[in-house]
Amino acid sequence: MPNIYFFLFELIVYILFALCFHHAFKHGISNLLKLAFGILFGVMLELATIRQLNAYEYGRFLLMVLDVPLCIGVAWSCIIYASMEFSDASSLPYFLRPVLDGLLALNIDLALDAVAIRFGFWDWGQGLRTQYFGVPFANFWAWFWVVFSFSLGYRLLARNTNWVGLWLSAPLAFLVGLAGVLGTNAVIVFVVPTSIRPIVIFITLVAALLVLSKRPKFYLRPVHPIAFWVPFLFHIYILIAGMISGAIFDPVILFVVGLLMLAISYYLHGRTAQKLFSFSK
């Protein structure tokens, strides 16, 4: 019998993919290609990273691509797709939006990763007490650069209204994304000394957060609910499954972080949430 936590995680990811696909189908081939190449990117970056660093391994999900669960690649695509939908409606300069995309992804991972390893979704081989409750600090560096690199690569050509922007933005995002991920992995693991690695990661993420000091305005155009549903369902799943299993209370700070990340996500996507959950006329 499949592990219920694995099964529900996969189910949620594929539901989110169906929502993203529906949106992409209605908004043209460039969006469909972004979603498709996002999946390819997600699977390939995991396969490449496992072989490059040999730092973690996945548990057995229902659908696997070699040693990587298909749902992980799909999840990466959905997170990138939803983040870009949100950031493209902001006042941030065009080429600063990938920074916001990376930060939006981190909002999910800070709640997800430490609980996921307690479910056995993946294993860092370092126990449950080292660094961030069993998750290497470098993982958060990687999450930021994964989403930033793909988003930046896509935006290099996406503003072109001719066939170049239409057909080549997604393949370029795939190539730039892989190069960005493998390059930043190599820097943090093989170049930066272990003793100062947490400092470098901290400074990088603080520098990214400084983008928000520009006080960007959001919702300059209508934002599709997919930008809300992707982070919301990940957060709700982790909180509910974590409470039922008890994993999110080991230690209890994980529960606090989960609530905080959900609150931040709701703050960012509150306008969409209010429309979705409003029963008044």
What does this protein look like?
This protein has 281 residues and is an all-alpha fold. It has one domain. The chain has helices at 4-26, 29-53, 70-87, 97-119, 138-158, 163-191, 197-209, 226-245, 253-277, and strands at 57-58, 64-65, 68-69, 122-123. The strands form 2 sheets. It has a two-stranded antiparallel sheet with strand order 1-4. β2 (64-65) and β3 form a beta hairpin. α1 (4-26) packs across α3 (70-87), α1 runs antiparallel to α8 and α3 (70-87) crosses α8 (226-245). The model has no long low-confidence stretch (mean pLDDT 94).
Spatial strand arrangement across the major sheet: 1-4
User: Helix segment count?
Assistant: 9
Shape: globular
Structural class: mainly alpha
Mean pLDDT: 94
Helix-residue proportion: over 70%
Instruction: Evaluate the radius of gyration.
Output: 18 Å
Unreliable residue runs: none
DSSP strand count: 4
Q: How many domains?
A: 1
